Every structure is written in structure tokens, then in C-alpha cells.
Amino acid sequence: MKKKLILTILAIVALGIFGYCYVWYGGARNVSAEDAVFNVNSKSIIAEFDADIDKSNAKYLEKAIAIKGIVSKTDQKQVTLDNTIVCDLKELDPAIKENQEITLKGRVVGYDDLMGEIKLDECTVINND
């Protein structure tokens, strides 16, 4: 009886460790290697989110998209397109300049309705016009 209890506890601990490692380290996505599900410009996607947030979230959330817009601001590893699309880059391309038209690919992580911004992460430069 004692042996069964010890084996059961060890099995539960092993499953817990496996689950923790899978959640923490496993399932990493490489958005730059994925094909973009949608190709949009910044003004049209903002209009969609302004019109219906729930419908737009269902359409875009957690999907890789290619988005075209004018660079309004650059920071450490962040580019803002048309003052409304905030893109976190894997690494900042020094060729990116303000007031330049650019196409980025990234994963939509959400819409900040307070700031009126769409957030993307894991962004990479597709086309730097």
C-alpha cells in the first residue's frame, strides 16, 4: 500500500514538472517563418477594430499578419505605424526611419481601446520602401 502511494505521488510530481516545462519552454512560435494570414494596411485594420472590437479580435487575435503603414515613431525595439499600430520587433533595423512607408509581419496580441492602439509582437520587416 505504501509503495502504491509513493509511486502515485512520484507520477503526479513528474506530470507536474512536465506540464510546467511544456508551458514555460515548449510550444514556442516562430512568426517570422509563418505565412501572413492577412495582408492589411494600418488604416483599414484600425477602422475594423473601431467598428467592432469583438469581431476584429476573433478575426485577427493571435494570427500572423502583414501590415503596411507609415512609421510615426521608433524606440528601442518598437515601431509605431500611423500612431496606432505598436509593433514590438525582435531586433530594431537601423534602416527604419520616421515618415517611411514600411511593411511588417507580426502576431496580433490585442487592441488597447483606451489608447486606441493595436499591439503586435514578434514583428519582422518584410518590405522597407
From TrEMBL:
The superkingdom listed in its UniProt entry is Bacteria
Q: Which Pfam families match?
A: tRNA_anti-like
Cite the InterPro entries for this sequence: Protein_unknown_function_OB
Q: What is this protein called?
A: tRNA_anti-like
Q: Organism, per UniProt?
A: Flavobacterium salmonis
